[in-house]
Each structure stands twice: as structure tokens, then as C-alpha cells.
Amino acid sequence: MSLSRAEFEAQAEWLRSELRGARVQQVRVPDAERVVLGLRSPGVTHWVLLCAARGLGRVHTIPKPPPNPKQAQAFQGLLRKELRGAVDALTLLPGERILRLDVSGPGDGASRAMILEVFGGGGNLVLLDEADRVLGRSGPARNPGSRAGRGELWTPPGSGRAQPSRPSAEALPSDADIRTRFAALEVVRAREQALTDALRRLRQERKKLSRLLRRQQADRARAGDPDVLRTRADLLRGSFHLLERGRSTVRLVDWSAPGQPEVEVEVDPALEPAAQVERAYQRARRAARTKTEADARIRATTEQLADLAADEEALLAGDAMPGPGPRAKAPSGRAQRDTPRRPYRSWWTKRGIEIRVGRGARDNDDLTLRHSNGNDVWLHVRGRPGAHVVIRRPGKAPPSELLLLGAQLALVHSGLADGAREEVAWTRVKHVRKPKGLPPGKVLITQERVLFVETDRSTLDVLERRG
Hints:
Layout: H1 5-18, E1 23-31, E2 34-41, E3 44-51, E4 58-62, H2 74-82, E5 85-92, E6 98-103, E7 112-119, E8 122-128, E9 134-137, H3 175-222, H4 226-238, E10 249-253, E11 262-266, H5 273-317, H6 333-338, E12 344-348, E13 354-358, H7 361-370, E14 377-381, E15 389-391, H8 400-412, E16 421-428, E17 432-433, E18 444-445, E19 449-454, E20 464-465
Antiparallel strand pairs: 1-2, 1-5, 2-3, 3-4, 5-6, 6-7, 7-8, 8-9, 10-11, 12-13, 12-20, 13-15, 14-15, 14-16, 16-19, 17-18
């Protein structure tokens, strides 16, 4: 629950006395809903937090500033440029939870005003110029606050919507009390957000895996039943005298089936009888291989879906804590040993695209055949042993910068030193096959394209390693 108007009023009065003669020394903007000002008074620096988050709207001091975010907020740059000088006034608008901090410009510079608007559904942080025109906002405007855009005149909303002030006889919390109270609320809010994020990630992954499972089942069905195909091949072999070149179908008696029904079998009119029989057995063998591979993929996907369902149930029941986000560091120690081993290492681009690199020969097969989708991009250095590299979900037309990053990973994980130049083949995963009998890591590819790349490890600095 945000500060009440009476608590805002008490805080404003206390801050006025504490910040007398203070000057703006530093500005931190950890996110779009918070601004931290470093205000220097003689002998002491006050770190003042202005928060406009929904249900957490408040103003109070904090013992130390938050770290700068990995991605700087544009509003922070604006404040550091414009909000300089001494604190002239700190006022609370009558009937509202709207705090105004006026700062005089350095020397003869124009004054600026920092506005914190707090309402039930959230709030706003706004910077004004000397004429109360909007210079910028930390985020999109929220009702019922001012909707003025950049360059427009900021005007406060009408009074009377805020909670009434508490009786003066009632004790109001101190700055330290407010800080403690909201520290606990922030922990609760962070846990709730982590749970929401974890459930969203789980459900998105379940949705993707469900689509993958449907595709795998469809691929399995298209391959045909190997038992039926072998039976028909046996029928063709036993009815060799009925096969004539130029026929597209032949009717045969299935002596092994109950009732000995007639079945119609399609044949290729361009083939000789012996070739017809051999082709029928080839189809049966191919269907058997496809069934084995498809069943393994379907089983793995089904197990992953079951694990995700169990994880979601545990999260909802409170039996498990939300897992780390996509940018969290990999676990270490015993937790890392207990984590199932993946056959690949992951690198991520700034745009959130994952590039996977196989750990070894057998891992290469596992990565390509079981941990990739058909439209993922597959890369490998031509003519030498090395890692399979898979770019996940690169889109219909992978940009050349992304392909070059994948090629560099392939070169580096094939043992090539900087300056070595090699050809790197790439294609879609759906054009990569693993015929029976090939050694681990060996595959056959079609629709191959080639990149001629010079090894340069420094180009990989833009990637983030996550496993």
C-alpha cells in the first residue's frame, strides 16, 4: 500500500528540514518507476528514493544508492543533464499525493522541477522546465495523473481524490519505519513477480513443446506403419508373377490376415518386378528407422511436458521456488552436479537469440537430432572434426551478422586459432540426416551453403554465455 497523504505530508516536512541547502550530486534511475537522487548537504549525502510503482508509491531516504541497470534508462540521462543545482523547495500539492522538488540551475541556469505523482493505480515521474513544461517522463503517463506530453504544460489534477489526512494526534511512521515497511513489501512483490514470470515461462515452453509433439506425431504418421509395409513387400515377393511393368496397382490376397482379404498395393509402373519388390522392402526399412527415431523424439518431448506440468503444479502449490530467469547464472557446486547434463553449451545474442554448440561427437548428434527444430540453422566447419552449431529460431532470412557469429563459434570449437580461414557449411536442421552406420558426429546434409570466414575470437565478445 502506497503512503497515505498524511504520511506524504509528514515525509515532506521532514525532508525539507533534512535537505536544507542540499545540492543534486548524483542521479540513479534503476527502472521506469523509481528515481534515486543523491543530495549533498554539508558533511552528508542523502539518498532520496522517489517511487511511483503501483501500490508502492512513496518517498524516503535509503542508506546507499542502487546499482546502475545493465541497460541505462533514457530518463536517467535527461535528469543528469537537466537536474543540477541546489534544492529550492519541496512541496506537497494540497489534497494530493503529488510531491514537487524544485531545483535551481547552476549559476544563472534555469530552474527545474522533479514531480512524483502517486495514485491508486500507479503513478508518474515527470521532469519540468522553468515554465512547468514537460521535459520528459520516466515512463508512459498513467491516469488520473497529468497526461501532458513533452513540451506541453504540466498541470496537476483537481484536488479531493486522495485519502484524508490522519488526525494530528495519531503517530505517523518515521522515515526509517517507512523504509523498513516498504523493504518487506518489495520482497513480497519480487516473489510474486518471480512466480508470475516463472509460470509464464513454463506455459510458453509447454505451448512450444505441445506444438513440437504434434509435428513429431504427424511426421511419425506420414512415415507409415513398418509392419504393414513389410507385409505388403512380402506379398509382392510372393506374387512376383503378377507384377508387370506399366501397372500402377496390383490386387493381392493377404493369406496371413483373417478371412484372407484382397488388398490393393500401389506400384511404380516404370520399374521392373524385381525393382518393385526391392523398393517395397526399402520403404518398410525406412519406415522402421523413422519409427524408431520418431518414437524416441516423441518420448523425450512427452517427458519434458510431464516435467513442466509437475514444475507448474509445484509452483502453484508453493512447494517450489520460482526458477532463475533467462539471464541468471548457471548453478554451481552440488546444485550444478544435480542438474541434468545438456549436450550443448549456450550463447545468447543481445536480441535474445540462442546459439547452441555441441560438447562432443555424440553430443553433436544429440544436439542436432533431438534438441533442435527443423527451421533452426545448422553450421559446421567443412572437412574437419568439430562442434555442431545450431542457431535457434533465426527467422526466415537469418541476418549475415547472426550467421557469422555462428560460424565463429564453429571455428573456435573446431580448434582453429585466430587468423585461420576455413569454409563453414550451413543449412537448416531439416536438411541434416544421420544414416544408420555413420560414426558419432558424422551426418549428411543437403541444400548446403558455404561461408568463408577468418577466425577472430574477439567478435564473440558480443555474446553472453549461459551454460
